[in-house]
Amino acid sequence: MKQLEDIHRQATEYTKMKIYEDIDYYLGANEQMLSFAQYLNDRAPFLAQVWQNVWSNKATNKLSRFHKKEYLKKKNYVVEDMNKKTLNQAFRKEVIEFRPLNVNKLLHSIFADQPEKWAKRYVYARERYLQEEKERQIKQERYAYQEFLCEEAEQWLAKNNEDLFLALRHKAALKLKKDLADRVKYDETESSYLEEPLVEVGPFVVDDYSRVEDFFEEFTGNLHKVMIKNKWYFEYETYYFEYEQMIGESLHTLIQQALLLHLGQNHIDKYQSLFHHSLTGEKLLDLIDWEDLIPNALGRLMEDYVTDLLTIANEDYEVEEQRRLYEIQVKERKQKRKQEEQERRQKEEQQQRMLNDIFGSAYESRKNIHQKFVLHIGDTNTGKTFHALEKMKAAPSGLYLAPLRLLALEVYEKLNSEGTPCSLKTGEEERETIGATHLSCTVEMFYEKDDYDVIVIDESQMISDKDRGYAWFKAITKANAREVHIIASKNAEDMLLQLIGDSDVEINRYQREAPLEVDSEEFSLKNVKAGDALICFSRKRVLETASMLQRKGHQVSMIYGSMPPETRKKQVNRFTAGQSDVIVSTDAIGMGLNLPIRRIVFLETEKFDGTKRRTLTSQEVKQIAGRAGRKGIYPVGRVAFFDRIKLMRSLLSQVDAPIESFAIAPTSAIFDRFLSYYRDLGKFFELWDLFESPKGTNKATLSEERELYELVRGTEIEARMPLKDLYSFLHLPFSKKEADLVRQWEQTMYSIIDHEELPEPRLRNRNLEDLEYSYKAIGLHLLFLYKLGQHTEAIYWERVRDDISNHVFERLDDDIANMKKTCKRCGKSLTWDHAFNICDDCHKNQPNRRRRYYKR
To answer: Is this entry keyworded RNA-binding (predicted)?
Structure first.
């Protein structure tokens, strides 16, 4: 085997080299030459093992795995299933017998009969040993002297650390004085990005800065190079980096000069004689950890007051005088800080008193109210709402609070059709029924001063919703009725009982009469059957799926979030009446819609929540799946999943953790109390951030209201409109993510302050999206009309909106009949089951997207 022969030759040469090294060390360490026979006797253990060690290591490491197996096969080993470790162990054991080298025989052939050769080797080894000993001694002496220099330098540094800081402080003071006088201030921007150019504000104003750290946050106007994920980028530089560099360079120079002067000429000469080159300040710095002084000095400097540095900038540098001034300023600083801390504490206490006064006990649970509460607790589709509404219908007066406008409209129509006069009130419509004793409205329209015999609050588990939850809290705790019926899921029960306190409580628990069963096999679109409701999580996917099913001969109803409620109702009625056999919906189906659904089919098990795609939660799965099965129609509700059946089944059976917190938002009473302190809406948002919400509550972010406020901040709208009115307009419930609707809101606000007619909403009808936008635009217009009391005008626009809703209904059928799935990049046709909205070619060719940094 040629490869093994080559390795054997290398091992032989390497073994000879190791033996000669051993002989040299053995002979050189002795003043008198020892005999060859003595060497063989003394080093017998080493000589016995040296070949085996060298050969087994070389052969095992250098021979390929294939050749090892071939070698072992010849030794009758079965190597097919051997792992690497077992293979090497077997090979090492066998290869040791391959042409072993006789070390003693080799040595005898070289030295046994040649004493002059052994003597010559001794002379060489002894000279080499003595030379190495001399070099070791020099190294040791150099090392000891370096240790001395290091210790001397560190002692000097510790002793003179304060003087160094005083020198740096004076240099920084001179630079600060010059920077404040000669350089310009730039407007604030995000330092990580260079898309926005820096804008000059003007010269610096000294009084704007209390401490040096405040000034260090300003931009210098230069670019600063930073490393992000192993790549260099540029960002706008602050004065912190500039002063850090100045301190580092100054320390570098000061320490070098001072240390050389401290050591003196004698030590410099000694270093020269030992190392044969000059001792420099740079070499001294390499011996000590001086760079730690930079952040320490910078940190101390940032604590200084700007006025103190400007004072010493007017003085020449003299260390004793600088020390005296520094001690005085530190003493004064401590007093000043103590006073500042006292003032800060007083300010915080005043602020806390103000926060308590403004927000007060607005979010306390109700206790000891002599009022009856009836809780209807259970899963989806168990009849909770039906029983609560029956109680309300039988009462002399009643109020139904719905989570959705569609449900409020449904209850309004239901009660009137069953002989109970009922009015309707949502933000976008008001329908007065003559002689009405009952009212159906969305939960946000609840008014606590109106009283009723029975109030029904639906879907009360939504009290935990971060954006809308406070509407349920307010309704539950402020409901003014003889009986309050609260409908909720099981996990909300404990929280509701905590909120209603010691009131008279009756709890009705509901169980599904139609059990849920999960299909054992993954769902395929080829297996769609009448009575199925297919669930996906985007409007686009709903339309695509409906189009595909319609091409296969199904009659399809559709439901998605942006669909007008009237259109949604017509779609639902088609399915209920049997005019369509399948329904395709987003999770909008999960709340309040009771339909004759045989099977709920999840085409997706993930959804985009506004930030990222995530797996559905247990509550979401149960809320949607619970719509399957209906008493008297389907004795069993079936549920199917497109994938991840095991995970989804576990989510469906999982017991939800109890709701432990609920959302709170500012009330009108809170805003009234705020107005007694300030007339600045920006300050109100600031105080809301400072307000520490009670335990078990989560503050609404008010992010959408803040964004709207930023549009009008500092404008005529803020200047001329009463703050309370402005605040109420910020809360109008419309889609604030759509730029055109926000623009409409802003234009309407200007017309209000100018006492002009409200601008009519812009209507579009080129396609389905335009019609849906127009519906929302009219909805926003109606919000303003009802808020301003323009009911006659509102009636006209409600009719226009109804017409648009009809157009949406008609357009839906046309659009899905002609719909094709195409790549959004190149327009190429895609199959209906293609997982993405771009084709494979476009996906393959799309450029890598990187963060938008300026990179050189």
So the answer is: no
